[in-house]
Amino acid sequence: MQTVFDGNSLDALLVTHLPNIRYLCGFTGTSGVLAIFETSSVFLTDGRYSEQARSEVQGPRIVIARKPPLAAAAEWLMENRSKLTRKKPRRLGIESERLTVAGRTQLASFLGSEFRLRETRGLVERARMVKDADEIARMRVAASLGASLFDRALEVIRPGVTESEVAAEMEYAARRAGAEEMSFPTIIAAGKRSALPHGRASTAAIPSRGFVVCDFGVILSGYCSDRTRTVHVGRPTSEARRVYDAVRQAQAAAVERVGAGVSVGEVDRAARNVLKHKGLARHFTHSTGHGVGLEIHEPPRIAAGQAEILRSGMVITIEPGVYIAGSGGVRIEDMVVVTEHGCEVLAPASKELITI
Q: Residues 223-236: pLDDT tens digits?
């Protein structure tokens, strides 16, 4: 945990984002603050989590407080400030993207002139980008379970069935298979609604002809999976096949480009170049992918203009799409683990167009 201090000129770091807390010390509850110092750390939570903290938290000293964890952390810092450093003001890092304005104001009020709040961005998230062998093993199992839900979708998708019904059947299957919860609200977008990149399942009925975008994932052992497949109800037109094949080729080109030492911008460009050649680039309206882990969206962002260099152990999605308003859309997505010489696709499966 002390690596977060490297080059950041901090005397202490207050971690308030729960996924970061879980990553650093193992706590899975919903209320807690982790205070990290150069030679020690303290985890503070309330009485609801006393037993859970003692069974889960590894490393930090555990403090069960009567106050809300943020207030308790501020009080603890004030009581122990002389043990941290005698310099004044002491430099306390806060997760600026995670702490609310009200929380920052509360901290500043408690700590007064003894501490100077220093805004930090992504210190823990950067460490989380590269997964260790245990994390990758967990994500491989989560990806496999998540991928299996598509089989249930294929059994349910029929003209007249609502998008919500399809999503409900997939989510029920996920729970029966052992998933803790879904990674995000399941996306089932059919017909013209398939042109909505984030078209969450609605009460709309699946039409007799058109694409159905299925974007889904589960959380297992704390780690998320993410997958998208697109099917076609009824006989597809030649144009529908052309669009689908273009997206499939774009996805394959981006996967092929992934590897340690490659910039995320190069991966994004590989997908876009295929769609540009097919005359469809303007219909690709989002990034090519993103990191996945304890959260469904993590760094790095696989997009144009991003300079992050891929490293072995990163887990990212590759998910180009084409969305034509008033007509429909296609997206194909897989999770991949970056390796020294390319990548491993988690839960690989055929991406040939399935018609129902």
A: 999 999 999 999 99
